[in-house]
Amino acid sequence: MASGPMSVDGSTTEPPVPSASGAQDEPKYGGFTRFEMELEFVQSLANPQYLNHLASRKLLTNPAFVAYLDYLQYWSRPPYLKYLTYPGPTLKNLELLQQEKFRQDIISPDLVHALIAEGMKAGVEWHQKG
């Protein structure tokens, strides 16, 4: 069996090359590179309501999807980190999604609302510091 990160379909893969690196020959899927699609998806993880949606669709209990979430941790390292618009909540939620208990608990509207409130509070505090 091959080792290394796993994609959603279970194949072994490496993180995509950032589009800014000039990889002109990278395949496109619906007009987008894998880098662009994974960037959009990982950034959507900053939204607690989206996490709840994934849980309601039972994706967070799918072993292949959980493996994909693990694979996406490469976004927490350079050079990928610099492409995240909201690295704080994106990476926090990606880290939380590595925990089975969180993947089960995010189905709760109470947890979703608590995460939204925590995010708003952090935003207000950040602006007050400046």
Automatic annotation (TrEMBL):
Instruction: Please name the GO terms that the record assigns under molecular function.
Output: transcription coregulator activity
Q: Where is this region: Disordered?
A: 1-29
User: One GO cellular component from the entry?
Assistant: mediator complex
Please list the GO biological process terms of this entry: regulation of DNA-templated transcription
* Superkingdom, taxonomy of origin: Eukaryota
- Keywords recorded for this protein, A-Z: Activator, Nucleus, Transcription, Transcription regulation
Major site of localization recorded for this protein: nucleus
The record, for Gene3D superfamilies, names: Mediator of RNA polymerase II, submodule Med31 (Soh1)
Location relative to the cell: Nucleus
Task: Specify the signal sequence span.
Answer: none
Segments crossing the lipid bilayer: none
Name the InterPro entries for this protein. Med31_sf, Mediator_Med31
The entry sums up its family as follows: Belongs to the Mediator complex subunit 31 family.
- Give a short account of what the protein does: Component of the Mediator complex, a coactivator involved in the regulated transcription of nearly all RNA polymerase II-dependent genes. Mediator functions as a bridge to convey information from gene-specific regulatory proteins to the basal RNA polymerase II transcription machinery. Mediator is recruited to promoters by direct interactions with regulatory proteins and serves as a scaffold for the assembly of a functional preinitiation complex with RNA polymerase II and the general transcription factors.
What subunit structure does UniProt give? Component of the Mediator complex.
Q: What is this protein called?
A: Mediator of RNA polymerase II transcription subunit 31
Q: Whose protein is this, by species?
A: Cercophora scortea
